[in-house]
Task: inverse folding
């Protein structure tokens, strides 16, 4: 049984942000093209569920995961 990765808090300076923007802001991706491909391929989860919408509005407290990295939307 593997232990889940620790969750890093990433401050967005507001109350909501789009998934694609957050993935780049959190440093998980360098380019929008990489974000588009990973999200479309179902490699990104939000609160434990795959979400194929780069434009999904994330709220404070949402946890996004990609390849073992987990980041939480913080104010």
Result:
């Amino acid at each position: 049984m593997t232990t889940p990765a620790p969750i890093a808090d990433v401050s967005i300076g507001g109350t909501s942000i789009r998934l694609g923007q957050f993935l780049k802001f959190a440093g998980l991706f360098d380019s929008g093209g990489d974000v588009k491909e990973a999200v479309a391929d179902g490699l990104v989860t939000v609160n434990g569920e795959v979400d194929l919408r780069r434009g999904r509005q994330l709220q404070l407290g949402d946890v996004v995961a990609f390849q073992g990295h987990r980041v939480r939307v913080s104010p």
Q: What stands out?
A: The chain has a mean pLDDT of 95. The two ends are 33 Å apart (CA to CA). The longest strand covers residues 69-74. The beta strands are 7-11, 16-18, 44-46, 49-50, 57-59, 63-66, 69-74.
